[in-house]
Specification:
Length: 305
C-alpha cells in the first residue's frame, strides 16, 4: 500500500535549459582560453583551459542526466531514470576531485619550476573567463538546490570562476612584481578550496547509492512515532533511502492487534502511518509503503533482514 506520484517535469525542463546555457558559455570560454594561451604562450591559461574542458565534460554529463530524468517510468524502470542524476553527480565529483589533485600537484611543481607567461594577455583572457563564469553562476543560482546534479553543475562553474580569479590575480602580480611563483601560490589556494566541497558532494552521492537513510531523517524517531500510534504492537523491516535527491522512500512491516484486521482499523492505521511519515519529520516522506500484519503473523516471518 503506497504513496504518491508527482510530476517534476517542469522543474526538470527548466534545469535542462539552464544547463544548456551554462555548457555553451563554458565551452565557448574554454575555446577562448586556448586561443589566449597560444597568443600569450601562457601555460597557466592553457592549464585553466584544460580545467574548463574537464568542467565542460562534467556539465555535459549533468545535461545528459537531466534529460534522462525527464523520461517517464516504465514497467521495467519503475522509477524512470531518477537515479541518473545521482550517478552523474558522483561522476562529476570524481572529476572535480581529480582536477583539485592536479591543481595542487601542478602548483607545487610550479613553485620550483615556474613557467614564463605573457601577463597582459593572460589578464585579459582571465577576465573573459571570469565574465563567462559569473553569467553561468547567475543562471544556475536559482536551481542549485533542486538536486545533486544541479548542485554538482553549480560547483563546476564555481570551480571555473575560482580558476579565472586565480589567473587574474596571478597575472596582476606577475605584471607588477615579476614574481612568477604567484601563479603557483594562487593555484594551491584554489586546490584547497575545491577538494573539501568535492568530498562533501561525493559523500552525499555515495550515501544515496548505498541506500543510507536520508540525511535529517532519524530512523529511531520514526520507529517511536509508529509505535506510539493506537493499536500498533511492533514495527520491523523498517527501511528508508533516497531514489534521487528530493525523492525519499520508506517501507516497514507494522504489526497491529489481530482485531484490527476485521474491524476496519487497518485502513485507518495505514492512513495514519502515511500521514505520520509525510508530516512529522524534517524530511517529508511522501512515497511510503507499509505492510499491515496481525500479531499472529509474526511467527510466520521467515526471511531475515
Amino acid at each position: 500500500m503506497s504513496g504518491h506520484d508527482h510530476d517534476h517535469g517542469a522543474a526538470g525542463g527548466s534545469n535542462r535549459g539552464k544547463l544548456i546555457i551554462v555548457f555553451s558559455i563554458t565551452f565557448a570560454v574554454m575555446i577562448a582560453e586556448i586561443i589566449g594561451a597560444v597568443l600569450a604562450g601562457s601555460l597557466a591559461l592553457l592549464a585553466d583551459a584544460g580545467h574548463m574542458f574537464t568542467d565542460s565534460t562534467g556539465l555535459l554529463i549533468a545535461l545528459i542526466a537531466a534529460s534522462l530524468a525527464l523520461k517517464p517510468a516504465t514497467s521495467k524502470r519503475t522509477w524512470g531514470y531518477k537515479r541518473a542524476e545521482i550517478i552523474a553527480a558522483a561522476g562529476q565529483a570524481a572529476l572535480l576531485l581529480g582536477v583539485g589533485g592536479f591543481v595542487i600537484v601542478e602548483g607545487i611543481r610550479r613553485l620550483f619550476d615556474p613557467p614564463e607567461v605573457g601577463g597582459d594577455t593572460m589578464l585579459w583572457f582571465g577576465i573573459i573567463g571570469l565574465a563567462g563564469n559569473v553569467i553561468g553562476l547567475i543562471v544556475l543560482a536559482s536551481g542549485r538546490n533542486h538536486n545533486f546534479n544541479m548542485k554538482a553543475a553549480f560547483l563546476e562553474v564555481l570551480n571555473d570562476a575560482l580558476g579565472s580569479v586565480a589567473v587574474i590575480v596571478a597575472a596582476i602580480i606577475i605584471a607588477v612584481t615579476g614574481w612568477v611563483q604567484a601563479d603557483a601560490v594562487v593555484s594551491l589556494f584554489i586546490g584547497v578550496l575545491i577538494i573539501p566541497r568535492t568530498l562533501k558532494l561525493l559523500r552525499d552521492t555515495v550515501n544515496v547509492l548505498m541506500e543510507n537513510a536520508p540525511q535529517g531523517l532519524d530512523m529511531a524517531e520514526v520507529r517511536e512515532h509508529i509505535l506510539a500510534l493506537p493499536h500498533v504492537i511492533d514495527v520491523h523491516d523498517l527501511h528508508a533511502s533516497l531514489v534521487a535527491s528530493g525523492t525519499p522512500v520508506l517501507s516497514a512491516h507494522v504489526t497491529v492487534e489481530d482485531t484490527c484486521m476485521t474491524d476496519g482499523h487497518a485502513a485507518t492505521i495505514l492512513a495514519e502511518l502515511q500521514r505520520c511519515v509525510a508530516e512529522h519529520f524534517d524530511v517529508s516522506v511522501e512515497h511510503s509503503t507499509f505492510q499491515i500484519e496481525p500479531a499472529a503473523h509474526r511467527d510466520q516471518e521467515s526471511i531475515p533482514h
